[in-house]
Amino acid sequence: MIRAVKGTRDILPPASAVWNKVEAAARRVFALYNYAEIRTPIFEETSLFARGVGEETDIVSKEMYTFEDRDGGSLTLRPENTASVLRAYIEHRLDQNPGVQKLYYMGPMFRRERPQKGRYRQFYQIGAEAIGSDSPAVDAEVIEMVVHLLQETGIHDSELLINSVGSKESRVKYNAVLREKLAELAPKLCEDCQRRALTNPLRVLDCKVPEDQPIIETLPSILEYLDDADRSHFRRVREFLDDRGIKYRVKPRLVRGLDYYARTTFEITHGGLGAQNAVLGGGRYDGLAESLGSKVAAPGIGFSIGEDRLVMTVEELQAAAVEPLDIYLAPIGENALRHGAILAGDLRRIGASVEVGTDHKLKRMLELANKLNARYTLILGDNEIVTQTYGLKDMASGGQESLTRQQILERFRTYEAAKS
Ligand code: HAM
User: Fold this and answer.
1) DSSP notation for 228-289
2) pLDDT tens per residue, range 116-155
3) For ligand 1, atom 14, which residue shows the shortest CA distance?
């Protein structure tokens, strides 16, 4: 038997209905904040991610699905979408459009990580980017939007963590201090941290090994290394959040795993998720556009929600997400099946969902209608075709009425109108 590749999975009904609900809620919220959808390719030139996300990051150094194209070029399945969105922004000169460019996306991303609960090699993100302003008001609005979105999907018990990693210059200073401290402390830390201390010292702050925590706690905080402009930017982001009544915790160790961040970073975690508890992550990336070749400055901020993880937290939506079947149409005999198929088409056109039985045995079809949770069964036999009246059975009450074709269409037109 051929199975799905390790770290990938099929999203089957009824779970797929929850995914659709979450995506529909996201589209509604994005529209409220004036975001429009962008769809970028699933693969890009490898150099986009190497330059955008950073050569030293875990993502680029060991998790990308990179392959040689037939013409010898190097392509990579997108491990994230911010770099692609910025590439599209530059390529299509979106800076020439009026105002801040507000773009959202949803779709699969690929990282060759060790699969576990909430961590896959093909996973899905719902994300948004606001490009063209460095105002802290934009940071606060982006964070407000994602909090709004989580509320709309019914997620509770989440915590918003925020931080500022400062500008590139303050980070260079902080990195130098960390490197110096780690030269002495690294031998007491886990193997990964010993490596990170040399390659990317900021990543040490992200270590999850419990024994390392007391040592990491003694490292200086990045907030002490912010310059005045960064410090004031961060203060204003917090003020805007306070004004909106949005609760958050400042976590100075929140440095995130991608190199493009500058100033604000944030994550939302959820207690029910276990080790992989970040439902989403995001932050500001002033300077990224320039490093990807933009001639004009394009400061921006955005986030990506891990849709797989979000769906896991909204289990209560699961039952409500499945739309029940309106009508199971039960034709008895070939002639009835032909009539039934035409009636089914008319019913669907007025908005009723219809499943047409092909079994011809009434008892078996009624059993199946029950199992499919149909609201009504419509019975069509030779007799009904002669008299032009059909039996409409209410599956909950068991009551049955004889109705003409016209009456049935009228009944479902009213019924569907009441539903919407
Ligand atoms: P990220 O933190 O790498 O950020 O990913 C964002 C979210 O994607 C994570 O919080 C997590 O929920 C989900 N995620 C990441 N890897 C996996 C995986 N292997 N399996 C399941 N879920 C996963 C970014 O990707 C940035 N592009 C976010 C951003 C947008 N920053 C600015 N704009």
Assistant:
1) HHHHHHHHHHHHHHHHTT---EE-TT---S-TT--SEEEEEEEGGGTTS-EEEEEEE-TTHH
2) 999 999 999 999 999 999 999 999 999 999 999 999 998 8
3) 306
